[in-house]
Amino acid sequence: GDSVTQMEGPVTLSEEAFLTINCTYTATGYPSLFWYVQYPGEGLQLLLKATKADDKGSNKGFEATYRKETTSFHLEKGSVQVSDSAVYFCALSDIDDYKLSFGAGTTVTVRA
Amino acid sequence: DTEVTQTPKHLVMGMTNKKSLKCEQHMGHRAMYWYKQKAKKPPELMFVYSYEKLSINESVPSRFSPECPNSSLLNLHLHALQPEDSALYLCASSQGIPGNEKLFFGSGTQLSVL
């Protein structure tokens, strides 16, 4: 079945550092890929998504590119802020499917 | 209004109690979801309602009973829960086109079963 493997944390960074969180997937079809973020005490929010190979999703300085050849969707941000401290989940959804398969989540802490 | 509202925010219940979790959205979404999330784990899908009909039940025990009274409301009725059911229960909604949709999540109900 479909699955997502993402880099486990926790990850601790200083402000303005470069962040990358690795995510790879296994799917039988042509899934859509997502990054969701969960701030403390809140539900999840969609950060970005990509629906086909070579698509790049971007939002709030974060980027991820759908790489079919490496089955990856790594999340990157060039200069993190304290407010980026959260748990980040990579997820996929296969076509015509309501189910989201989530990765384990990566806790990111940014220090001032 | 792009919010999914969940009540209550916190709930403590005994194993013999009956309680309900409520979820509401006014975005015109036609799919609504219940997820269960344990601490430091990803959310696990429990139920999906599509156009007010139960579309997915992920083999959830019968002590959890979902209900979708209309397209804006989703309830989760709880009865005879176990301590291991303690978790954050998240409601979500989406437009209703499966496959590449953005899910909007509520802030969740933190449930403790004593």
Please give a quick description of this structure.
The complex is a heterodimer of chains A (112) and B (114). Chain A is mostly beta strands and 112 residues long.
Q: Span from first to last CA of chain B? A: 36 Å
Low-confidence stretches of chain B: none
C-alpha termini separation of chain A = 41 Å
User: How large, in whole angstroms, is the Cα Rg of chain A?
Assistant: 13 Å
User: Average pLDDT value of chain B?
Assistant: 93
Largest interface: A-B, 24 and 26 residues
Q: In sequence order, what are the helices and strands of chain A, one letter per element? A: EEEEEEEEEEEE
Coarse structural class of chain B = mainly beta
- Into which percentage range does the β-strand content of chain A fall? over 45%
Percent helix of chain B: under 10%
- Structural class designation of chain A: mainly beta
Number of helices in the DSSP assignment of chain A: 0
**Quantity of strands of chain B, as a count:** 11
Helix percentage of chain A: under 10%
Spatial shape of chain B: globular
Poorly predicted regions of chain A are none
Oligomeric description of these chains: heterodimer
Biggest sheet character of chain B: 7 strands, mixed
Query: How do the helices and strands follow one another from N- to C-terminus of chain B?
Result: EEEEEEEEEEE
Outline the structure in words.
The complex is a heterodimer of chains A (112) and B (114). With 112 residues, chain A is mostly beta strands. Chain A has no helices and twelve strands. In chain A, strands 2, 5, 6, 10, 11 and 12 form a six-stranded mixed sheet that branches. Chain A has a four-stranded antiparallel sheet with strand order 3-9-8-7, with no helix packed on it. In chain A, strand 10 and strand 11 form a beta hairpin. Chain A is globular. In chain A, 40% of the residues are buried. Chain B is built from no helices and eleven strands. By secondary structure, chain B is mainly β. Helices cover 0% and strands 56% of the residues of chain B. The relative contact order of chain B is 0.33.
